[in-house]
TrEMBL record:
PANTHER family: BINDING OXIDOREDUCTASE, PUTATIVE (AFU_ORTHOLOGUE AFUA_1G17690)-RELATED (PTHR42973), FAD BINDING DOMAIN PROTEIN (AFU_ORTHOLOGUE AFUA_3G02770) (PTHR42973:SF34). It holds the Pfam family FAD_binding_4. It comes from Massarina eburnea CBS 473.64. Residues 98-269 form the FAD-binding PCMH-type domain. This is FAD-binding domain-containing protein.
């Protein structure tokens, strides 16, 4: 028997509006079966659900996945063993996520189908994960062992308003798709710098962009969000409508619902200039001087520019740095890059390119499906601390240098005063950063390698570099609590770093829109309001 999935969208929207009262977004006696019935899913007509009370022989997720498969007209369900399932788990950016085996993968086609999945997960108590671009580095970020991994890939709409001020982007998109579509309209949005990264994870955690010195982070440039809440209700959040949720989504991650549409502020954009320059270690001091000038002065003088410096190691070449230089206008070697232009590069790819081309260039050499870890901390900009962190990285590197397939990096990315100022737009974001504390910089580390037997010592290497630099920064009064979610490891607590006031505000908003805490209890992966994913620091 196939149950019929009747889309009663108007009824659902009416329900959403009726429930907009602050205190009772979801009543205490919320009836999940009744909510499913409201959107056309008759629980009693689905054998697996009707037999819920007899579940001794069936697991929660067996029932949930079978139900999703039974309901006519719902998106695709991939079960273990199918070639498409193997293909799916094999296509994560990080091997740690690919090693996770969900009971099934669900690919919804609409927001309403996500409502159905969330309510079925509640009814059966089957946990789920939400996958956008899948670039979370650690296991469970956007995958879940034995649960339902909800892949948003089919929610891939991209459209531009007739006045070209808003770009509506579905969460199934990668940045390359967004930029290529928007280039046809002569516009762009503030988003990721690497082609294959997903729109939703990057935007919900913050989102550092080539345009950030001009407009702030990606989360500061979302005009409104469409969200499926824990009760399956589809709502909008903007500065005017539900400003509390709107604020929370600007940095609060996946704690509040599944975002099914990002309405980004769009702006006119043509060709740009940018690329990477590779430097050898005799240029490191000059390069650190240059990035220091940019972080403290250049970024304020010319907000069209963006710069990142990353240090790494190549077995045949030795220590090297890669400087990413970008300019939002098609101008070569703008004066803000003068200091870098004086440094002889081993190799350079800077030139005039479109935004989408720049993101493809930045993706070169980034492999899918290998073991990855990302970490970050934040400090006040200080020239001596730059030297200290680079030295610490190279001093500790011998501990892991013989690991097969090793590609270790440590980067300096300034959170400039113009960025901090732009973050205050539209009522501010949830990150807890204020312009008077700037300029700051994120010290982020990312490493990939081949063999599981090297996992422990490589994680410990990151922990050791972080700890060592943290101690030095504290000693010099340069420490800052902020941990950027999008680069954080499973041993860190980004939301806890936003400050007590913001953390409590985020918890209150979560309890208002999700009183049963579905987005932590049934959707446990990645960074939650409840704290660090893994409290056992590598040792
Ligand atoms: C190669 C590379 C380049 C990067 N470049 C940048 C950069 O330029 N700037 C920057 O700021 N960061 C960058 N990052 C970090 C990046 O922002 C994070 O990895 C981010 O989580 C990726 O988003 P995703 O959708 O691909 O990830 P996913 O792993 O799919 O999602 C991350 C988290 O968001 C949740 N989530 C996803 N979609 C939704 C949704 N629709 N509603 C609610 N929750 C959702 C997931 O459940 C998961 O917990 C980069 C990362 C990599 C690996
Ligand atoms: C919940 O709703 C279903 C479907 O309308 C109904 O059969 C059931 O009795 C309700 N349960 C409670 C506890 O009210
Ligand atoms: C549950 O199992 C019992 C005993 O096997 C059976 O009598 C009953 O009909 C079942 N209930 C449902 C809803 O399947
Ligand atoms: C596997 O993934 C590739 C790339 O996404 C796709 O072209 C192919 O059809 C997939 N194969 C199966 C069996 O799903
Ligand atoms: C959300 O906003 C859009 C655009 O303003 C509107 O078309 C849509 O009906 C709204 N949805 C809800 C659930 O309020
Ligand atoms: C640069 O690295 C090489 C090792 O590849 C080392 O011998 C040399 O001393 C380093 N130079 C500086 C200036 O650190
Ligand atoms: C920009 O500067 C680099 C480094 O000095 C130089 O190699 C390149 O030729 C310059 N490009 C242009 C277009 O002037
Ligand atoms: C947490 O991290 C430690 C290493 O620090 C590891 O041994 C342990 O297995 C991890 N726990 C989980 C649940 O992943």
């Amino acid at each position: 028997m196939r149950a019929t999935f009747v889309v009663l969208l108007s009824a659902l929207l009416a329900g959403g509006l009726a429930q907009s009262d602050a205190e009772a977004f979801e009543p205490a006696n919320f009836n999940v079966s009744a909510a499913l019935l409201d959107i056309g899913v008759h629980v009693s007509a689905i054998p697996e659900l009707a037999g819920l009370e007899n579940r001794s022989s069936l697991s929660a997720c067996e029932i949930a996945c079978a139900s999703l498969q039974t309901i006519d007209g719902l998106g695709e369900v991939l079960t273990q063993g199918l070639p498409a399932y193997v293909n799916f788990t094999g296509s994560y950016w990080s091997a740690f996520q690919g090693e996770v085996s969900p009971y099934c993968v669900f690919k919804p086609n609409t927001a309403l189908e996500i409502s159905v999945q969330i309510l079925i997960s509640r009814l059966t108590q089957c946990s789920f994960a939400v996958k956008g671009g899948g670039h979370g580095a650690f296991a469970g970020s956007s995958s879940i062992e034995g649960g339902i991994t909800v892949s948003l890939e089919n929610l891939d709409q991209i459209s531009v308003s007739s006045d070209k001020t808003i770009a509506s982007v579905g969460p199934g998109n990668r940045w390359i798709n967004v930029y290529q579509a928007l280039e046809k309209e002569g516009v762009a949005v503030v988003g990721g710098r690497v082609s294959t990264v997903g729109v939703p994870g990057l935007t919900l955690g913050g989102g550092i962009s080539f345009f950030s010195n001009k407009y702030g982070w990606a989360c500061d440039n979302v005009d409104s969000y469409e969200v499926v809440t824990a009760s399956g209700t589809i709502i909008n959040a903007s500065a005017k409508s539900r400003p509390d949720l709107y604020w929370a989504l600007r940095g609060g991650g996946g704690n509040f619902g599944v975002v099914t549409k990002f309405n980004f502020n769009a702006f006119a954009q043509g060709s740009m200039w940018g690329g990477a320059r590779i430097l050898s270690n005799d240029s490191f001091p000059a390069a650190l001087d240059a990035i220091y000038s940019f972080a403290t002065k250049g970024s304020s003088q010319d907000p069209d520019a963006a710069q990142i410096i990353s240090f790494g190691y190549d077995a045949s070449f030795g220590p090297l740095a890669s400087v990413q230089l970008d300019y939002t206008k098609p101008v070569a070697n703008a004066s803000v890059f003068d200091e870098f232009n004086k440094i002889t590069a081993v190799k350079s790819s800077t030139g005039i390119h479109t935004l989408s081309e720049l993101t493809v260039m930045l993706n070169e050499g980034i492999a899918d499906g290998v073991r990855d870890t990302y970490w970050d901390v934040t400090f006040k900009v200080d020239r001596d601390l730059f030297t200290f962190l680079v030295d610490t990285f190279y001093n500790l590197l011998p501990n892991i240098a013989d690991a097969v397939g090793l590609l270790p990096t440590i980067s300096i990315q300034a959170i400039t005063v113009p960025q901090l100022t732009q973050m205050q737009r539209n009522g501010g974001n949830a990150l807890g950063l204020d312009p008077t504390s700037g300029p700051l910089f994120i010290m982020n580390m990312g490493t990939n390698w081949d063999n599981p037997s090297d996992d422990a010592r490589i994680l410990k290497f990151h922990a050791d570099v972080m700890n060592t630099v943290k101690v030095e920064a504290k000693k010099k009064g340069l420490d800052n609590d902020f941990i950027y979610m999008n680069y954080a490891s499973q041993f860190q607590d980004p939301i806890g770093s936003y400050g007590t006031v913001n953390q409590e505000k985020l918890s209150a908003i979560s309890k208002k829109y999700d009183p049963q805490q579905v987005f932590s209890k049934l959707n446990p992966g990645y960074f939650k309001l409840q704290g660090v994913p893994n409290a056992t620091w590598p040792s």
